[in-house]
């Protein structure tokens, strides 16, 4: 191998590493601005762990929906506390729609609410936080957003 060819290979490796580093740094900065920092400011989100956990669960749902539902801690605990005869009453009870995507079943003294998130029509609204920053939130269409600076 000639020296000229050897230098060319070294240049390709060197510039290839630089390009790889630039691409990786772009994706890291994109992740940080979307998930860690608040509205492209140096302020770190208050709910960083919760936000990352929710996105992880959301992605896990694409691969295995049953696994995503099993990650909800209150689901198993709640369903195991209901006696079987009450469960049977609730399954035979008629379902009434409160709002699009929200249903209620009711028997003697027991009420069960079912929320089907994929059926709800969402609306994006700008919300002013206590810290003075503005954040875009999703609320069900036709409902009022929370009062400004409540959170």
| Secondary structure: helix percent | 40-55%
The succession of helices and strands, N to C, reads HHHHHEEEEE
Total separate domains: 4
Q: Write down the overall geometry.
A: elongated
Major β-sheet, in short? Answer: 3 strands, antiparallel
Low-confidence segments, ≥5 residues, pLDDT <50?
none
Name the strands of the widest sheet in spatial order: 1-2-3
Mean of the pLDDT scores? 78
> Termini distance?
67 Å
Q: What is the gyration radius calculated from CA atoms?
A: 25 Å
Tell me what portion of residues adopts beta-strand conformation: 15-25%
Structural commentary:
With 151 residues, this protein is α+β, with helices and mostly antiparallel strands. It has four domains: 1-35; 46-81, no CATH class; 84-119, no CATH class; 121-151, no CATH class. 48% of the residues lie in helices and 19% in strands. The chain is built from five helices and five strands. The protein has helices at 3-35, 48-63, 65-70, 73-81, 84-92, and strands spanning 95-99, 102-106, 111-115, 122-128, 134-140. Strands 1-2-3 form a three-stranded antiparallel sheet, with no helix packed on it. It is elongated and about 90 Å long.
């Amino acid at each position: 191998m000639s020296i000229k060819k050897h230098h060319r290979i070294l240049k390709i490796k060197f510039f290839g590493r630089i390009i790889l580093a630039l691409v990786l740094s772009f994706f890291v900065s994109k992740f940080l601005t979307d998930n860690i920092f608040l509205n492209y400011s140096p302020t770190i989100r208050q709910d960083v762990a919760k936000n990352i956990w929710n996105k992880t669960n959301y992605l896990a749902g694409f691969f295995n929906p049953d696994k995503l539902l099993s990650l909800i801690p209150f689901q198993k605990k709640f369903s195991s506390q209901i006696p079987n005869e009450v469960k049977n009453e609730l399954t035979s009870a008629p379902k009434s729609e409160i709002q699009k995507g929200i249903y209620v079943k009711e028997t003697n003294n027991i009420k069960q609410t079912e929320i089907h998130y994929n059926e709800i029509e969402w609306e994006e609204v700008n919300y002013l936080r206590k810290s003075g920053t503005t954040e875009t939130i999703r609320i069900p269409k036709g409902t009022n957003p929370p009062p400004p600076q409540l959170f």
